[in-house]
Design goal:
The complex is a heterodimer of chains A (270) and B (310).
Chain A: H1 14-39, H2 56-63, H3 65-98, H4 104-112, H5 119-132, H6 139-163, H7 169-175, H8 180-209, H9 212-217, H10 224-233, H11 239-268
Chain B: H1 2-18, H2 29-54, H3 71-82, H4 85-119, H5 124-132, H6 139-150, H7 155-162, H8 175-199, H9 203-211, H10 216-227, H11 229-244, H12 248-253, H13 261-270, H14 275-299, H15 302-308
Classes of the chains: A mainly alpha (270), B mainly alpha (310).
Family (chain B): Belongs to the binding-protein-dependent transport system permease family. CysTW subfamily.
Pfam family, one (chain B): BPD_transp_1
Keywords (chain B): Cell membrane, Membrane, Transmembrane, Transmembrane helix, Transport
Chain lengths: 270, 310
């Protein structure tokens, strides 16, 4: 790829662009950094000059029964959502990208539409619907609800990988005598594997962080995000930043992992 | 595009040769079933529920579609038109928040997207990660982080205190605080579509323009701007629609004193337990969302994104 650049303000002023993007990145980091700073702070009135470090809030968070239950509930939702949305999204992506069928474009349109919905709209529609069809509220309805938003995102991610595969691949495999099962097991799945893995990681992180949908569907069960929200609106304790930070640490590790996988693919592929 | 068509006809032929009922148990049909079932049961159903409930009366929590009424529509639409009562305020707040958010995210994102796509080569992955990470953090947590930053005796207080500034107006619980929150939360939804459209501009195009003597301004107006337009359209619709649904931002940063459509819907459902009234407002949101979503999806070319390799 050629790397000749535009010459706004000449070549020497490239640092301006670095500076600007750094500012935007800093802006995006403000609340997350504030959160982490607050989670280690032991004192009433916050002060940078006189910072009192403590791990006490993390200890308190990890030893509280209600917080641990909320973590368990969140995992009980996130793990099935990850597995199921990866299967559903990958299947739909393969159908859309590697086959021709009637109403193919309409299928894509409807399947990807939930991505663009404000979650409050999905959540409250699902909440009314769950009461009408007798699905009720709890962990299982939350799983089904999150699937509606997350499966299309997996489909989007896997589709982009699957569209990058040479269109002649299937024909070549068939010509060499591969049946459908062999075609999938030996050819298609290995080729989309990286997309599926990053799709699955994104699915887990999005489910792990989801608030709107579970807040409408989890009923009496509290998840970690609804617990935080409850504490934010009524009865703040310094444990809240610690709990929120814990969620953030898990997310950041997984997202960085997913990006590294994507990046490795770009390096070796092409 | 032509390779795609060739692929389709080829696959069409090989699919047809298998034939019969078995075909329905083979790809692509079997692959389409899970997604279709899921969306039918838990996406189409809930949206129908919103529409049906919007035509119900009183505080009904069981839908009786045959006994419908437009009472809630009269209340909401009448309130919006006359501008009186809560709906006038809700309309003004909602439009102010969403339009300002869209404009601000566009102004902030455009130069950043340009820089990322065309100027930044070193540490690009690090920058991309820093911009993506907030997207995968609960909106709750990010808004909470802002509250910790802005609140009295918070992080900002402590920082400005270093410069000897002790007294300044509280930054919390205002409309501008909500806008700060929504601008923050939805910035990546503007930045990445523009970034992708900038990536697709051929270097040769820009070189040619430069060789023909185009100034920086002409280059921007005649080349960059028109070619990045799809990204601007997608990003703007995305940010506008998503910020219409911004409830947590209004609740936490607005302190429950400023009502937008999202917080008013939430209020109708939660506090006053009036499903039909909440649904009627949600129908308005639903219409805007569906139209924008379709426009976005028709503008996005997945194949093009795949070819850019980012």
């Amino acid at each position: 790829m050629s790397t000749r650049t535009l010459s706004f303000g000449g070549r020497s002023s490239g640092w301006i662009w670095y500076g600007y993007v750094t500012l935007v990145a800093l802006f995006l980091m403000i609340p997350l950094v504030s959160l982490v700073i607050a989670s280690f702070y032991d004192g009433r009135f916050f002060s940078i000059v006189d910072y009192q470090f403590t791990l006490g809030w993390y200890n308190a968070a990890l030893s509280s029964g209600s917080i641990r239950r909320a973590f368990t509930n969140t995992l009980f939702i996130s793990v099935p959502v990850t597995v199921l949305s990866t299967i559903i999204g990958t299947a739909a992506a393969l159908a859309y990208t590697r086959y021709e069928f009637p109403y193919r474009e309409s299928f894509k349109l409807i399947a990807l539409l939930p991505i663009f919905f404000p979650l409050i709209l999905l959540g409250l529609g699902m909440s009314m619907w769950a009461s009408q069809i007798g699905l009720g509220y709890g962990l299982v309805p939350s799983i089904i609800g999150e699937l509606v938003w997350i499966s299309p995102i997996v489909m989007f991610v896997v589709s982009i990988t699957a569209l990058g595969i040479d269109p002649n691949t299937e024909e070549a495999a068939r010509d060499l005598g591969a049946d459908t099962l062999t075609l999938y097991r030996r050819v298609l799945f290995p080729l989309v594997a990286d997309g599926v893995v990053s799709g699955a990681i994104f699915a887990f992180v999005l489910s792990w962080n989801n608030y709107y949908i579970v807040s409408y569907l989890s009923g009496p069960q509290s998840t970690i995000t609804t617990w935080i929200h409850g504490r934010m609106t009524q009865g703040f304790t310094p444990v809240v930043p610690a709990v929120a930070s814990l969620i953030f640490y898990v997310s950041i590790l997984l997202v960085v992992g997913a990006i590294v996988i994507e990046y490795r693919k770009d390096d070796t592929g092409e | 595009m032509s390779t795609l068509q060739r692929l389709r006809t080829r696959l069409g032929r090989s699919g047809a040769s298998e034939g019969g009922v078995v075909e329905l148990l083979a790809p692509p049909w079997i692959l389409l079933v899970p997604m279709s079932l899921l969306l039918l049961v838990m996406f189409v159903g809930p949206m129908v529920a919103i529409v049906v409930f919007s035509f119900q009366t009183g505080n009904s929590i069981v839908a009786t579609p045959l006994e419908w009424s437009i009472a809630t529509y009269e209340e909401v639409v009448g309130g919006v038109i006359s501008g009186e009562g809560v709906y006038g305020d809700v309309l003004v707040n909602t439009v102010a928040v969403s339009a300002t958010t869209t404009a601000l995210t566009l102004i902030v994102s455009y130069p950043a997207a340009y820089a990322l796509a065309r100027r930044i080569k070193r540490y690009k992955l690090v920058f991309l990660m820093l911009l993506i990470i907030p997207l995968f953090t609960s909106v709750n947590i990010r808004v909470f982080g802002w509250a910790l930053f802005l609140v009295q005796n918070g992080v900002l207080d402590s920082i400005v205190g270093l410069f000897g500034i002790e007294e300044y107006a509280s930054l919390m619980y205002q409309r501008s605080t909500i806008i700060l929150g929504t601008t923050y939360v939805y910035l990546p939804f503007m930045l990445f579509p523009i970034y992708l459209s900038m990536l697709s501009i051929e270097d040769a195009t820009i070189e040619a323009a430069e060789d023909l003597g185009a100034s920086s301004y002409t280059l921007f107006r005649r080349i960059l701007l028109p070619l990045s337009k799809p990204g601007i359209v997608i990003g703007s619709l995305f940010v506008f629609v998503l910020s219409l649904g911004a409830n947590v931002e209004a609740e936490i940063l607005g302190g429950g004193s400023i009502f937008t459509i999202a917080s008013n819907i939430q209020y109708s459902f939660g506090y006053s337990q009036n499903w039909p009234l909440g649904s009627t407002q949600a129908v308005g949101l639903l219409l805007i969302t569906v139209v924008s979503g379709i426009v976005i999806l028709r503008t996005i070319d997945l194949r093009e994104i795949a070819e850019r390799g980012d």
